[in-house]
Amino acid sequence: MPRMPDLPAHLDPHALVADIRDWAKALGFSALGVAGTSLREDEAHLEDWLAQGLHGEMAYMQRHGRKRSRPDELEPGTRRVICVRMDYMPPGVRGAWSVIEDDQRGYVARYALGRDYHKLMRLRLQKLADRIADAVGPFGYRAFVDSAPVLEKALARDAGLGWIGKHTLLLSRDASSWFLLGELFTDLPLPLDEPASAHCGSCRRCIDICPTQAIVAPYRLDARRCISYLTIELKGAIPEPLRAPMGNRIFGCDDCQLVCPWNKFAQQATEPDFAPRHGLDGAKLTELFAWDEETFLQRTQGMAIRRTGYEGWLRNIAVALGNAAPSPAVVDALQARADHPSALVREHVAWALREQQGKRSKAEAAD
């Protein structure tokens, strides 16, 4: 982007940032902050994480080299990063723990229940950029919403929007972690916000609750064990030792957020598009498993769930059905997919049927 040397003389930069915060809130963002471009410590942390192979099959994490941690190299001319938060927990959603504890229902991460946030937030960021341009004239910018190699949590921390918790998610004292992040890389010489301080203390509830023990140390996630990775990013077979710990989580996982003490300060979403679609905040597994591909594509139109693909959807639900209490309905649902054209689906269905048989045998022996 072309470098803007200075703001127009009649503009007070601090007043401009205050106005930008107001415009952002009017667009549905819950908070806004301004960060610089230096992320050297975070860069070292990322490179160590990658060197240990903790990113699994997410090759894109290292594809762009250090551009991920150097905003001014990813987008030349960047001087500041305007970071925004948007709350996504919809009001009236079925209680998360009540779904997780009901093995006949499928658990979907709460950010994915409604419309995919990527396009929604990018459009809002574009409107914010247009509003800024009305005030300052043409300026250089580029909007990102989890759509490019950006260390968004580190930037949001430096912008004062929260601190990175031991579960590696961003935490806010007034909003917990139930929010999404977006950025405007810009050439505007705006005043910087103070970075947020950390407030996890000695707490390790997120580490202890993780079903697959993916948080291998404070601030260190082994993505290869993370249920979000297994159900979304991984395209092949889910490792057998990790299937039982997944329980009924069929798209993502929220346990580390649900158990966080800061969760009591979570804010509900004001965006109606984040409301659950098709009863996915607690739908029956057998009903979801019965969707054919056309139904899957139709019902996940414009949703993040589409990312897992139809085969991945059936794979994930097969694991959840294998983990469910034994019942004729579960077995019937699995047997209906036993000859599925996909070898990936067939293998997970076969595993689930063996699990069901083993549970029935144990129950009969106990009687």
UniProtKB/TrEMBL annotation:
Phylogenetic placement of the source organism: Bacteria, Pseudomonadati, Pseudomonadota, Gammaproteobacteria, Lysobacterales
Recorded name of the encoding gene: queG
Key words, A-Z: 4Fe-4S, Cobalamin, Cobalt, Cytoplasm, Iron, Iron-sulfur, Metal-binding, Oxidoreductase, Queuosine biosynthesis, tRNA processing
Residue numbers annotated as active site: 146
Tagged with keyword Cytoplasm: yes
Transmembrane intervals: none
Cellular localization per UniProt: Cytoplasm
Superkingdom, natural source: Bacteria
Annotated organism of origin: Oleiagrimonas soli
EC number(s) per entry: 1.17.99.6
Substrates-to-products reaction catalysed: epoxyqueuosine(34) in tRNA + AH2 = queuosine(34) in tRNA + A + H2O
GO cellular component, one term: cytoplasm
Residues involved in cob(II)alamin binding: 68, 146, 170, 181, 228, 253-254
Top enzyme category: oxidoreductase
Binding residues for [4Fe-4S] cluster 1: 200, 203, 206, 260
Role: Catalyzes the conversion of epoxyqueuosine (oQ) to queuosine (Q), which is a hypermodified base found in the wobble positions of tRNA(Asp), tRNA(Asn), tRNA(His) and tRNA(Tyr).
Name of the protein: Epoxyqueuosine reductase
